[in-house]
Structure formats: C-alpha cells, structure tokens
Amino acid sequence: MLTPTHADLVAIAPEIILTITAGLLLIVEAFLPGLRRHFSGLAMVGVLAAIWARLHFELPGAVWAGMMQIDELAAFVDIYILVAVIFTIAMAGPFLRRTETEVGEFYALILLATVGAMVMASSVNLLPIFLGLELLSIPLYVLNAFLRRSQVSVEAGLKYFVVGAVASAFLVYGIALLYGATASTDLAVIGSQVASSGQLNPLVAIGLAMIVGGLAFKLALVPCHAWAPDVYQGGPTPVTAFLAVVPKGAALIVLLRLADGMDLLHISPQWVAAAAGIAVASQTLGNIVAIVQSDVKRMLAYSGIAHMGYAMVAVIVAGADGGAAVLVYLVAYTLMNMGAFASIAMLSEREDRPHFINDLRGQGYKRPIVALALTTCLFSLAGVPPFIGFTAKFVVFRAAVNEGFVWLAVIGVVNSLVSAFYYLRVVYAMYMQPLPRREPKFQFSFQIATAAAVAALGVLILGIYPTPILEAAQTAILVLVR
Amino acid sequence: MIITATHYLVLSLIIFCLGLVGVMVRRNFITVLMSLELMFNAVNLNLIAFSYRLDDLAGQVLAIFVITVAAAEAAIGLGLIIALVRLKDTVSLDEADVMRS
Predict the structure, then answer these.
(1) CB B43 to CB A176 under 8 A?
(2) Is B99 inside a domain boundary?
(3) Which candidate in B16, B80, B84 is best for mutational testing of the A interface (most A CBs within 10 A)?
(4) ipTM score here?
C-alpha cells in the first residue's frame, strides 16, 4: 500500500488550496447565497494563496511515486496559469453581475479546471496527464454553456463537449497504444526506450499520432481547429479568455515533454514533417480566415489558431532553445489575450449577440483606457516591437533558425505580416471611424478596465524589458532537457 | 482457433472506428453520447488486452480510471442535453447551429 508522504502533499499544496476553495464556494453558495457578491474575492484569495504556496515551499522534484515532477518548470507553468486565472476572475465578477448569473459554481468550476491544468502540466506519467486533461475539460464544457438561457452559449458548450470528448478518446487510445508498445506509462521510460531504439516502431508512431491529435484539438491546430470559432463566439467572454490560454499552455507543455523525451527531432523525420505541416497550415489558415471575420471573438479564435502554429515551431525545435521559446511564447500569448478579451468583455452590449468590429467604431475617444489597452494587445498580437508579442516571436524564430529551420521562420514572419492587417482593422475602426448613429451602450466596469490596463501594461513593460521572463524560462527549461 | 490479445486489439479498433463514425454522422445528441461511450470502451478493451499480454497491472488500473472519466463525461453530456431541450425542445444537433456564418 502506497501512502503519500509529507513531501508529496506539500508538493501539491497549491492544487489542494484551490480544491478546498472550490469546495468552500459550493458550500457557501448552497447555505449563504447572500454572500454572492464576495465570491470573486474569495476565489481570488484562493488563487493568491496558491501562488504563495508555489513560491514559498521548496520544489521537491519527483513526487507521488515519480508520477509528478514538481520543479522549476512546473512552478513556471503553474504561476503562468494562476496569473491567467486571476485575470479571468477579475473579468468574471462584473461580467456575471451584468448577465445575472453570479453563482458560486462558476468560480468553483474555474478553480477545478485550473487544478486540472496544473496537474497536466506537472505530470510525467500518462495516467495523471489524462486525468488532468479531463479535470480541465469537464468543467470547461459546463462553463461554456453557463449562460443557459442564451442559445449561442449552450451551443458553444455542446460543440466543445462533442469535440472535446472525441479528442479525449483519441488521446487515451494513443495512451493505450504507447502503453502496449512500451509496457509503461512513465514518460521517461517511454522516452528512453524510444530514443534508444533510434526509430518509431509502428505501434508507437500510431499511438503518438493519436496523442498529438488529441492535444491538437485542445490547441485548436489545423486540422482539429473547426470548433474554435463557434466556441469562442458563443461562450461567456471570461470563459473564452480562460479557454484561449490555460488548456493550450498545459497541452503545449505535455507536447514538449513528449517531443523532448523521445528526442523526436533527431529520430523521426516523419514527426518533423507532420508537425511542420501542422504549424504552417495553422498559421496560414488562421491568418487568412481571420481577415474576413466581422466578429471580434471569432477573429481572435482564428488568431489563436495562428499563434499556436507559431508555438508549434518552437515545439518542433524542442531542446533548451525551443523549450524556452515555448514558455516565453505562452507568457506573451497569455498577457495579450487576457488584455484583448478583458477589453471585449467590457465593449459588449449583449452576450447572445455577435461582437461586431463595427460596434467598436469611435470607441477610441469614448472609452480611451480600454481602447488603448485593446490597441496595445492587438499590436502585440501582430508582433510589432516593442511589445512582448514581438519578443516572443523573435525568440521562437531565432530558435528555429539556430536549428536549421530557416524556411519555418520565413513562413512565420510572412504570416505575421499578413496578420497585422486584421488586427489593425480593429484599431482603425476604434480611432479613425466616427461613432455609429445608434451608439452601443457599453457598461463601464472599473474592475474589467483595470484588468485590461494591467495586461496591456504587462505587454508593454515585458516587451521593453523582457530579461526576467527570458531568464525564468531558461532556468525552468533546464530541468526538462538532458 | 485460439483467441489471442491481438484479436482483442483488432476488435477494439473496429469498435473505436464505429464510435467515431457514429459521432460524425449521427445528428441525435443521445446517439452521439452512446457513440462516445463506444469509443471510450474500445479503449478499455485495448488496455485490458495489453495488460493481459504484458502481464502488467497498470493497464487495468488505467482502464478503471477511463471508466470513471467516461461516466463523468456522460453526466455532463446529459446535463447539456437537458439545457438544449429546455431551450429548443429538441435533441438534434442540427437544431443547435445558429452560429455557422
């Protein structure tokens, strides 16, 4: 009988804190519904306590019988996820009050999904990776359908559910095949077996392809991207922000662990060809289809597809360079998207209607702070210096060039140029076009405006002075690569 | 004929593909849920066949976790059906498609 040790429990203190907070929220919701106004504060305290726990306790390395690896990499990803959750909760409070759906379940589900993402990112065994993925996905199915009187929201939940469940089935089928081929679910054992054999045998190759397929659904990479626009458009905006950032981060880390553990770059030219194809297709399709979108959230969905294409380039490169580039890209992607979605959460009239770019006409002068925050984030998403989006793309493309993938870097740069067009179209509408005759009524919310402004400031400051992030990413990735 | 683990693997692949086709072509959400269940149970069959062939218990442990997760997903799926029925009075996925632009 395996009993957890003291070190095991301390290592997952942040996860425990979040789970307890989630349970507490559900109990308070059931017995003291009068306290609903304070729920977002309570959830925020839980997240801050989790961050404190992750920074305070020392990182023990392998725990839970070697199933989880709590080290600098796990700490980096955990803190990035928790910061994203802070933004989500800050957005959610006023948003839920406006849609009259402020209940404890919302925050409890967000926190449980966070635990799932954190487990997934710090696991080095396929079993907890699968469980983490499910703990992340199942609350998100509910959250997408949270506005249950709104047809688009229920529809988003349904679509995400069907696609997500199929993706999970693919992933776990792939896990079964890898287990059958290597008699182990431990990534290190699988990795060393595959890397030492010097090639992928058919069973491993099919298993790996199915796992990558399952993760590609979460990452919304071509050809598994079709759900993204509808789910982004229909889901409640804070949930969309969470969905755009947290599952993708966790999935990218798992992909990185797999690619690096098996040394796929050197043993399997097929993997490089397939992954490069996926990366290029995602960038190109995402950027081109984004041009014709009239809904801001749909546009950001296609932009997210393209951005994961860029991140995929870093996953292909893997190793110290590529790994650090993935982490930097995740931080940049998080800040930019959180800022953009916070701005959109405020610049929206009704949740069940599309968020047309045309509705933003003239808002640059009407709502200067939020419009400026949105502009900063969009410039950064387009990869314009000095914002962090530029730094992140630079790090990714530099890693690609150093490893000899000049053509991938060139395609990426060309795609960034194309993407500038549709991002700047929104900026153009906000600053260069007059207010429409029927002026949309956007409710001002101090909390959301602050969230947007903080994200935009982060985008600017870390863009000018990226050293802390670059150094943290490099230290974190050293524990992964041999 | 002796039934070996390989036969189970082929059977599991067939069931998985049937489930996948069901998810893709069926428009009734309840049938889609059943097809998803087929896919997950194909995985379980696979895991147990491997566990038998490798003489290793980890596969069976994994199968028990997959059963649990599949149950949770089915519960969420049924909840979503209820939300859809209350809103549109239908279980057809085609009715839930207003966003397609």
Answers:
(1) yes
(2) no
(3) B80
(4) 0.95
